[in-house]
Give the backbone structure.
Amino acid sequence: MARSPFTVYFDESGDHGLRNIDTEFPIFVLCAALYRIEDYLRHDCPLFSDIKFKLWWHDTVVFHSYEIRKQSGDFAALANAANRNKFFEEITNFFAQSKVTLIAGAINKQALRDRYVAPQNPYDVSLMFCLERVYGHLISHGGADTTTTCIFEARGAKEDADLKKRFSEICSGNNQWRRALPFQAVFTSKKANLPGLQVADLAAYATARHVQHPNRERMDWSCIEPRFRRGPNGRILGWGLKIFP
């Protein structure tokens, strides 16, 4: 099978465990940042690096939503209001110009545990939702008959092995399409500093907070919302964002 013109980066927000659910943040989100490879290389990567050179004078900084919120490490400078405002202005401008297509699966863990006697792992459920919708996008954009690479952040030997197993099951036909999905999984460290993983990270947290509080206005959600996959009716829900249960 030929190589796909697309590539996909995955990252999550929240803990996928169901035993001790944080009532302040009971949402788990897996987000896929889907790109045409040419758009990624020629457009979004330069834009993303430009932010880092503007604000840090180098591009070794890895954007991680947790460290950004905590203003730790490279993001300690965000404690200064002027620096913080400039940073978020740059991120907003990036998403306004980005060519990424966002797809996310969001799980309300408390509702999942309350509804099902033996609930599935939220990560597994989100992964299925994302891969199904990525494939749907490829069908309509000319990539369904080629092999698309899905890039995940490595989380540890056991976690990666579990994910590979579930990924393989979904791609073997355990999905809404009831057919084999032409995807391959690649795992890499966050230290690889891939813009696609960082875009997925930033979008995952904003999506999780939106799902938790859908009626609250949030700047981070407002800037990524236009980048979500949409159906023919313009709806995101069910097309670019699947919320379960």
About this structure: The radius of gyration is 18 Å.
